Amino acid sequence: MGSATPSESVDSELRCSICLDIFICPSTLSCGHSFCLQCLEAAWETASSFSCPQCRATFPVRPQLRRNVALANLAEQLRVGDGMAATIACDNCSGGQTPAVKTCLRCEMSYCATHLQPHVENPRLRDHVLVAPIANLEERRCRQHRQELILYCEQDESPVCTVCTIAGEHRGHEVIQVENAQQTKQEAFRLEMTVREKKKTTAESRIQQLKGVYKRVQESLRGAKARIRREFGRRREQLTREEKREALEHVDEEGCSVLSRIQADIARYESRARGLEQEINQLLAALAVQDPLSFLQDPLHESLRRSSVSQETQDDPAPVSHGLNLAKVISVGGVQIKLLPFLVTPLTSRGLP
């Protein structure tokens, strides 16, 4: 099969792959493919996502469609050119500008309404076969024998001339008149059309069913999403209450532990303070003695020496951490409550360790 001519390639590039016709208001997508704007909007009308009908490239949001001016101008030029090419001029009119309305297969000429009158009014020309204007009558002749193609070879399924069946490649083949072949083919086409109409009706019915299913699925999805949001909200509220309760329990436990340590320290320091107060009173009493000998013989001196040695070897009670371990207290199930930063700052600012 031969390659397409440049004009055929240009023609194919200026046709929409959806409607297969020359572009009408073409719009180009970011992937580079172009379509009629209306065809693209119709294709996306019921689509859940937006993609190129040709290469299937997807777009996160619906592209804003704009008219491709350059492509639209080229398509319009092609459309005008096709219209001019399709116009067949009358063979009898000078200048070749008057369009023909009929072509006579017997005369092998095309006529305008004026020059067609003899074929309509002259009884001798009424047996001439008039058809819609034909641009190339040569296509009605056998290329090999230059005879009119009036027969149809059923074996090769092609129009042939009389010479083809006598001395040509179709000799001995079953042939019928082209009119009979047309009737047979038309009947086959009618059957095919009936079959396709039934399939089309089935397809359209299926489309309506699927649209109904699509709508129901959309509604079901919306309902499912709403239920999930409500359930997650309820669960989140429940978890928040549980986290709060557990956090308070942790605070109570840690707080009781810290308070117990503080009370133990207080008891130790109170005992130490009472001992020191007793020693201070003894020293005050000794200082009040006026007699030197009595002062020097006071047993307090020996008691003070032993107390000094004892104080050198005895340290103050070890300090106990009185701060709350908030990271441990606030942590519930491995999740840090968002209030931790707000709780740490005020406690630290108060000078607590």
Can I get a quick summary?
By secondary structure, the protein is mostly helical. Helix content is 54%, strand content 8%. It has a domain at 1-86: Zinc/RING finger domain, C3HC4 (zinc finger) (Herpes Virus-1, 2-Layer Sandwich).
Description:
The chain has 353 residues and is mainly α. The protein has a domain at 1-86: Herpes Virus-1 (2-Layer Sandwich). It is built from ten helices and ten strands. The strands form four sheets. Strands 6-5-7 form a three-stranded antiparallel β-sheet, with no helix packed on it. A hairpin with a 4-residue loop joins β8 and β9. The protein is rod-shaped and about 180 Å long. The relative contact order is 0.04. Residues 329-353 have low confidence and may be disordered.
Kindly list the characteristics that best describe this protein:
mainly alpha, 3-stranded antiparallel beta sheet, 10 strands, rod-shaped
